[in-house]
Every structure is written in C-alpha cells, then in structure tokens.
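Subject: complex prediction, re-run

Hi both,

The earlier run crashed halfway through, so I resubmitted it with identical inputs.
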Amino acid sequence: MPPTSETLTAERILEATEEVLRRHGPAKATVVDVARALGVSHGSVYRHFRTKSALREAVTKRWLDRTTELLAAIVAAPDLDPETRVREWLAALFAAKRRKALADPELFATYSVLTTETAETVVGAHITELTDQLTEIVRAGTAAGTFTVDDPAVTAGALFRATDRFHDPHYAREWERPGVEGEFEAVLDLLVRGLRAAA
Amino acid sequence: MPPTSETLTAERILEATEEVLRRHGPAKATVVDVARALGVSHGSVYRHFRTKSALREAVTKRWLDRTTELLAAIVAAPDLDPETRVREWLAALFAAKRRKALADPELFATYSVLTTETAETVVGAHITELTDQLTEIVRAGTAAGTFTVDDPAVTAGALFRATDRFHDPHYAREWERPGVEGEFEAVLDLLVRGLRAAA
DNA sequence: CAGCTGACAGATTTCAATATCTGTCATTCC
DNA sequence: GGAATGACAGATATTGAAATCTGTCAGCTG
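This time it finished cleanly. Structure:
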C-alpha cells in the first residue's frame, strides 16, 4: 500500500484502477482494491465516481481515446492523397489493435470485457468519433474528385463495418494467424477500388 | 418419455438432441436427457456417438448445412448475371441468419454457443464450403469479363470477411436495429463496385 | 467546512459439500 | 451374437451458507 500523500484526484484514481485491472483482471477488480492501492477508504473513491460502472467507463474511455488520438494524426496529414490516407488510417487502426492484443493478451482481454460492458455508451461514442474521422477523409477524397461517393458519412460507415474483423476485439484470436496481413490487404483493395469506381 | 419402439439410429438421436437443446438450452442439455427423451439408457447413445462433443458437433453441422444448401441454389442459378448472383447470395446469407435470430432468439443463442464451441472444426468447414460457393460465382464473373479480379478465391474470402457483421452470430443483436438494411446495402454497393473496377 | 472515514444494509461472490453427469465395460436380453 | 443396459470412477455442476463487495451516510479530522 503506497499511501502517497498527494491529493486524491479522479486522475490518480484512474491510474490506480488501471493498475488493479492489470493485476486482478476485470472480474476480481473491486472498488475496495482500488481504494487499498491508493491508501484511502473506498468511500473516498465514491466521492469522485458515482458508481463502480462509472469508474469502469472512465477507464475504458481513457484507453479508447489513446487510439482515437493516434489516428487523428493521419486524418490531418496534409501531404497524403485521400486514397493513401484511407489505406493508412485503416491499416493504423488494425495495427494499433493488433499490437495491443499481441503484446499483452491478458490486459487486452481485460479491456475487451470492459468494452463489452460499455458497448452502448463509451464504445458507441468511440465508434462515432472514429467514423467521423473516416468521413472526413472520404469527404476530402470526394471533393478532390478521387472518390465517387454519394454520401461520405454512409460510405465511411460501410468502410468501418466492412473492416470490423480487423479491429473488433472479438476477432483478436484471428490476428495471430499467419495469413491475416494478406486477408486485410485483400479487403482493403476491394474497398478502395469501390471508392474509386464511378457511381 | 415417448419410448417409440423403432430402432435407435444416429438420425433419431440427432432429432432428440435438437429437441432437448431447444427445451433445456446448451448448458443444461445432457446426454442423459437425450437418452431419457428417447426412452433408452445413455449407454446406447454412446454406441452412436463417441463423446458428448461429437454429438454436439453433429447437431451443429446439421444446422449449418441447412444454410449451405439454401445458398447452393443461388450459385447454380443459370439465368442470373454474376453481379446479381453475388448480391443475392450475400443478401440470402444475411436474410437466413437474421430470420433465424429474430424468429427464435433463444434457439439462435443456443446454436451460437454450439458454433463457438466447434469453431475450429465444424464451423471452419462450414465457412470453407460457403467461401467455395462464393469463389464459384466470382470465378464465373471473372470468366464472363464482368469482374476484374486477380485471384477469385482470395477475393471471395475478402467478400465473406467484409460482410462478417451481417452473418457472424456475434453481431446478432445489431440485426434488430432499424438501419441495418441500409448499412448492409452500403457495404454491398462498395464491394460490388470494387469487383467491377479495372485492376 | 471540505474531504475523508468506517459502519451498515442489501446485493453479489466464493467455497465446499452434495448431486449429477460423462464415458467405460462386464453383463443381460432378444 | 449384436444391441442395449446399468453400475461404476472420475469429472463437472449445483446449492446454500458464509464472506465480500457496492453504495450510503452520519460523524470525524485537519
């Protein structure tokens, strides 16, 4: 128990919660554990988060936001043509998820449980943010005449859903298999060709 | 307990197993239950199926094969052009799964558990059969000059994986949502356009 | 007095004893 | 004699009592 006499903030609680989740897993990580890790009573934790699930949602959002930020850089890249940006963006999403899943499977499994719990709220918002990023790229490509697309938002949604297998944690086990890279390329090729074609 | 004095066959055991699964669900459906439903001792069931999981695999295969057969009709349809056949085949796959999921959610959940159990064996073979059917259509379209595709088998795999969300039981809950039809159309449009485009 | 504590009620989880199930096989039955 | 039985050992599941956890709040503390 490291009491660390600093003031108790939401931020410090989130850090401790991550650590407890990493150690105990999602099923056995309790609010009491988090409080103990911080050297405070569990009542203090409830001062910053109304419920245990609010705390879990906040931790999950934090984890997902790291990926959102990473990808934002590609949306903003000014020197890349739209087709390359679509490819790089989807490849970066796949690579980010895959790296996490392979580097620390147990932690990834923990967050997979958390995302399943919070599918309607936190994950829904995350997916909206991501498809908004994609929409931005598709819109730019349409404006530049590179893509022929009726409604960029609808097409961005289709791109995102067509690549579910390469970012949905449900498929994480597939990402270890030898052929995945090629499978991803095949899907991506088909989709990008679909963007280019005349309506 | 209907003893039905006919001879005990693998077929009759499979029918009884389906019934027990429907009534009890996957967790509580035991070999003893199946034997009781048939009015025989459980030892007799083991004469036809080496293990409980062999029995479950056989029932699952039966269920999946019904879909395979249904779709085979579209592959063989001689009066349809390749693009229509791709669209109809994927639409029929989605419709078949969706119908089952909405008509009897509990039974569908039961079979979802069974398919998860048998992912490596029975489901793997099922997916191979389905992608083989798709490959056939893509090959025909390529031969006819309608599609421009390097390797029909690879492209068929990409088509199948890009539409995972519309046939993988994992997404069954999404199939109730209002917008799904449109989402499916958007993905399908993008993919079909990708098939048509020049390499 | 703002922040923290710890005791509390009700909900959930754990654990160990008990019951049931799986898979085998010597024996029985037509 | 080929098919079916049922007793059995080890594995798995169920159950209910005890332990722990969640969320609240009156009171302590600096």
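Residues 30-32, 42-43, 46, 50-52 of chain B lie near DNA strand C (CB under 10 Å from a C1').

- K.
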